[in-house]
């Protein structure tokens, strides 16, 4: 009887010991990689923003010059999102905001939309989607050039009524076999532009905490 | 030497984790829609399998038999987490490509299967080899299935190779069938199940052909021994 108890105790202690060692190793790795991962993510974010707004066009610390935008119906965002503001010598240059196309073929399509102060598009990048591989995923810059066509467009170019895919009588190509995905993206980009037209000043406004 | 040969044959063919043990189906079916994806998951799986087999074999005399399963789970989960964190920090480019596959590996039961069936009973050398061979066998199935689905689904092979091998690999992509309209089902989950079924069937056909030839060889051998 004593032996069995001893044995159970031994196994339990060993199991505990393994748990402690494993947790320690994971915790140590986490601590030693945390800074580097944060730095990598910062760089990835910055290069994502720079792909929309070339670095020469602004001189502020764009990752710090941000506002937190609450869930916005026009942008279909469901939680707070960060808006990045690009300025040069104090002049407003552009904003980068998050917009969501809620009506993709399989769920939401999340995008970063860069808009210059005059309301023209700096560019659009899809950052998260679950569209069908080989069909709808052509909205991803890595898979096709489709998303680049938005650069330089605005609500007047093409005319507002033409902000649709060709199938719906608009200007934008759909892909073979996938109309729903590009339709959703075009719609969301248009809504983002409209939101900027009516709320642009608020997006650029300097908040108290930052100054 | 023969034992090593047996390990290699087991991992790659006779006891292949993908088409014989049918372990690790969750990641296998989910990530085999293109060759490049298949290769990514395959590489990440090999790395984890070798690391977990090696470590478990090294600790096999310390691990109490009654509590071995929780210890294995702990070791595997720790390895996967450590690999993911380290890759994210120091090989960020690689992480952006393979990173999404690494958490999926936790759902691959062939890893704990190998820990229990092999690594806990063998010394480090064979355990490492077993991990490598099982990983390679799994990767081979992934690539064959990925190739089938990509070819039938969108008429290409190695598309988006540049995501894994850099810009220079953009030319790797082969459009096998020009102006192919695509066959969506091959890319969707049903295509994965049907494709895997076909591969398993093909393996069984090959095996039964081999088996039909084998008895003759065995007889001949027996005769030589007798003679």
Distance between the termini of chain B: 27 Å
How many domains is the backbone of chain B divided into? Answer: 1
Number of helices of chain A: 2
Number of H- or I-type helical stretches of chain B: 11
Count of individual beta strands of chain B: 2
What are the segments of chain B in which pLDDT stays under 50 over at least 5 consecutive residues? 221-227
Class derived from helix and strand content of chain B:
mainly alpha
Sum up the overall morphology of chain B in one term.
Answer: globular
Mean pLDDT of chain B: 85
Instruction: Write the element-wise H/E pattern of chain B from the N-terminal end onward.
Output: HHHHHHHHEHEHH
User: Gyration radius of chain A, to the nearest Å?
Assistant: 24 Å
Q: How many angstroms does the end-to-end distance of chain A come to?
A: 73 Å
Give the topology.
The complex is a heterodimer of chains A (211) and B (227).
Chain A: H1 2-52, E1 66-69, E2 81-88, E3 91-104, E4 107-116, E5 121-128, H2 180-204
Antiparallel strand pairs in A: 1-2, 2-3, 3-4, 4-5
Chain B: H1 2-14, H2 25-30, H3 35-58, H4 68-90, H5 92-98, H6 102-105, H7 109-117, H8 124-154, E1 156-157, H9 162-165, E2 174-175, H10 184-187, H11 189-226
Antiparallel strand pairs in B: 1-2
Summarize the structure.
The complex is a heterodimer of chains A (211) and B (227). Chain A is of the alpha+beta class.
Could you characterize the architecture of this molecule?
The complex is a heterodimer of chains A (211) and B (227). Chain A has 211 residues and is α+β, with helices and mostly antiparallel strands. Chain A has 2 domains: 1-52; 58-210, no CATH class. Chain A has 2 helices and 5 strands; from the N terminus they run H-E-E-E-E-E-H. Chain A has helices spanning 2-52, 180-204, and strands at residues 66-69, 81-88, 91-104, 107-116, 121-128. Chain A has a 5-stranded antiparallel sheet. In chain A, strand 2 and strand 3 form a beta hairpin. The radius of gyration of chain A is 24 Å and the shape is elongated. The mean pLDDT of chain A is 87. Chain B has helices spanning 2-14, 25-30, 35-58, 68-90, 92-98, 102-105, 109-117, 124-154, 162-165, 184-187, 189-226, and strands at residues 156-157, 174-175. A two-stranded antiparallel ribbon of chain B has the order 1-2. Chain B has 227 residues and is mostly helical. In chain B, helix 1 packs parallel to helix 8 (124-154), helix 3 crosses helix 4 and helix 4 (68-90) packs across helix 5 (92-98). Chain B starts with a helix and ends with a helix. The A-B interface holds A 10-12, 14-15, 18-19, 22-23, 25-26, 29-30, 32-33, 36-37, 40, 44, 132-135, 142-143, 176-177 and B 33-34, 62-64, 66-67, 70-71, 74-75, 77-78, 81-82, 85-86, 88-90, 92, 96, 153-154, 160, 163, 181-182, 184, 187-188.
């Amino acid at each position: 009887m004593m032996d069995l108890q001893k044995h159970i105790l031994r196994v339990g202690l060993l199991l505990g010991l393994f748990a402690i060692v494993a947790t320690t190793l994971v915790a140590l790795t986490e601590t030693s990689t945390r800074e580097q991962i944060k730095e990598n993510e910062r760089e990835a974010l910055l290069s994502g923003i720079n792909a929309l707004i070339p670095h020469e066009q602004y001189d502020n610390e764009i990752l710090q010059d941000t506002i937190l935008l609450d869930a916005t119906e026009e942008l279909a965002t469901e939680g707070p999102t960060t808006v990045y503001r690009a300025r040069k010598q104090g002049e407003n240059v552009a904003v980068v905001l998050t917009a969501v196309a809620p009506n993709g073929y399989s769920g939401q399509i999340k995008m970063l939309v860069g808009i210059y102060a005059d309301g023209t598009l700096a560019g659009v990048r899809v950052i998260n989607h679950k569209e069908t591989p080989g069909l709808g995923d052509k909205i991803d810059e890595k898979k096709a050039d489709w998303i680049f066509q938005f650069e330089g467009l605005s609500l007047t170019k093409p005319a507002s009524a033409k902000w649709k895919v060709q199938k719906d009588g608009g200007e934008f190509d759909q892909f073979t076999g996938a109309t729903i995905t590009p339709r959703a993206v075009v719609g969301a980009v248009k809504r983002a532009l409209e939101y900027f037209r009516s709320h642009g000043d608020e997006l650029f406004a300097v908040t108290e905490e930052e100054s | 030497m023969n034992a090593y040969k047996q390990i290699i044959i087991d991992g790659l063919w006779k006891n292949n984790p993908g088409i014989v043990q049918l372990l690790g189906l969750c990641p296998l079916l989910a990530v085999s829609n293109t060759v490049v994806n298949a290769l990514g998951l395959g590489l990440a799986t090999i790395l984890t399998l070798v690391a977990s087999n090696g470590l478990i074999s090294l600790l096999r005399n310390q691990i109490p038999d009654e509590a071995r399963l929780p210890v294995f789970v702990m070791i595997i989960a720790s390895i996967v987490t450590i690999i993911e964190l380290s890759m994210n920090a120091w090989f960020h480019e690689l992480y952006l490509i393979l990173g999404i596959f690494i958490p999926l590996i936790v759902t691959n039961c062939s890893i704990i299967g190998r820990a229990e069936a092999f690594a806990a009973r063998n010394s480090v050398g064979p355990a490492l080899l077993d991990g490598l061979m099982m990983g390679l066998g799994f990767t081979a199935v992934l690539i064959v299935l990925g190739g089938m689905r990509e070819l039938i689904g969108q008429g290409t092979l190695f598309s988006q190779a540049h995501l894994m091998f850099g810009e220079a690999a953009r030319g790797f992509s082969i459009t096998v069938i020009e102006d192919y309209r695509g066959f969506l089902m091959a890319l969707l989950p049903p295509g994965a199940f049907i494709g895997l079924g076909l591969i398993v069937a093909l393996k069984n056909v090959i095996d039964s052909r081999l088996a039909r030839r084998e008895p003759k060889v065995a007889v001949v051998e027996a005769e030589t021994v007798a003679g």
